[in-house]
Amino acid sequence: DRAVLQWKGEAAVSMHAFEFGAGFGDTGHVWSNSPRSAFAADEGQGFLMKLGDNSAENAHLAEVYTFPASEPGQEGTVELSTEAVITANNCGQDVAAQSIQVNGAALPDAVDLTLRMPDCSAIGDIIVLKNMFRDLQFPIRS
């Protein structure tokens, strides 16, 4: 299973995966500051890759979370969420992002988001968006 968050420029968004009850900062919290390597899939864990170069002007960026859904014995939920950090570069601006989710043989599911960020008095605050992705449920139910 894969979940993709993509955006352009300095949106300051990120994807977070909380595997099987993990909390913020726990071992099962997978995000850009704790992405794991692709070898984690061999151990039945997910990993995250960040794509793009944010030093380029108006860069297109993406984060891709991958979880080995075919791993036998998985039971529980992987919760997926998106965070938007209010920064000096995006405060008071519209931020656009898109999520794409691919699960098994199902068709990809995409959600477009345009969000007006709070004014610059809120710099450093975080907005958590929980409806950009569907949580992953194991065992997989059809």
Short précis:
The chain is mainly β and 142 residues long.
Question: What does this protein structure show overall?
Answer:
- With 142 residues, the protein is mainly β.
- Helices cover 0% and strands 44% of the residues.
- It is built from no helices and 10 strands.
- The strands form 2 sheets. Strands 4-5-1-7-8 form a 5-stranded antiparallel sheet, with no helix packed on it. Strands 2, 3, 6, 9 and 10 form a 5-stranded antiparallel sheet that branches.
- The radius of gyration is 15 Å and the shape is elongated.
- It starts with a strand and ends with a strand.
Helix and strand arrangement:
Layout: E1 2-8, E2 13-19, E3 29-30, E4 47-51, E5 60-66, E6 76-85, E7 94-102, E8 109-116, E9 126-129, E10 136-138
**Molecular shape:** elongated
Spans with pLDDT under 50 lasting ≥5 residues? none
End-to-end Cα distance:
14 Å
Largest sheet properties: 5 strands, antiparallel
Structural class: mainly beta
According to DSSP, the number of beta strands is 10
Helicity level, as a percent range? Answer: under 10%
Radius of gyration: 15 Å
Number of contiguous helices: 0
Strand order of the largest sheet: 4-5-1-7-8
Calculate the mean pLDDT score and round it: 92
Q: Features of this protein?
A:
five-stranded antiparallel beta sheet, elongated, 142 residues, single chain, mainly beta
